[in-house]
Amino acid sequence: RVKNDECLRNAVTWLDRAGLSPWSLSVFVQHSTELQEVSDIEPEHYKTLSNALDGHTGSLQRLRWHVRDFEFGLQGLSFPNLASLVIIFEDIGDEVDNVFNLPSLPCLTQLVISLQDHASVLNSNIPWSQLTHLYLGSGLPFNQWKLIMKMCRMLEKGCFRLCLCRLAGRPYTDPNATMVTTLPHLKELTFLESWVFTEPITELSLPALWKVEEFSRAQGIDVNSDFTAMWNPQLSALFANITHLNLSTGLSGSELATI
Description:
Layout: H1 5-18, E1 23-28, H2 38-53, E2 60-68, E3 84-90, E4 110-114, E5 133-140, H3 142-151, E6 157-162, E7 181-182, E8 188-193, E9 204-205, E10 211-216, H4 235-238, E11 244-247, H5 253-258
Parallel strand pairs: 1-2, 2-3, 3-4, 4-5, 5-6, 6-8, 7-9, 8-10, 10-11
Helix pairs in contact: 1-2
């Protein structure tokens, strides 16, 4: 946290001492309880912190950014060796068009993004093609998840908290929907909170996948419909090589026989 100029000077002193040693940074942007609006205060913190980090980002390897309602704030910087990035947004609301205007991250391989609306994720500058580990949640629509997966050619492990209603939010269309994308390195796939195995996933080929886990809530996930867990037979081809399958949602005997 950067509360005042003294804190800023202390941070710069520490960064100077760190030199070229690998280091990690955790940033929590706290809401102000003063009468002045938070929106009038927090951008100044971003600007000040950005100035402090300038010239010290070469050895930063892990960054955790916890914020509410504002842009990432470090777009003018480059993080040449940052491998791991965690972004947690709370109560972000509907206006998220600029949220994912990230700084330069040429070596990023591990990404965690947690927020309620992923409307701007696809149009962001996230380096999907180089990610090896990815977590996205919550509120990620099923169709958008498939589009993102097709861009993650190097992905090895993925964990996703998908939207419970596949029709929620903006519609997403894939101009190459009939083309199959192979993810040759994906070994482990985990789904949280929603049952995604009712629909076929014909757009992907996962030859190295050996472990699939699903940790949904109890049956009746969607309170507005009569939910029944069903397994689409076409998934057998997609999951042909798995050796570990963990399903927390109860299935009928006939559905288990299908698997």
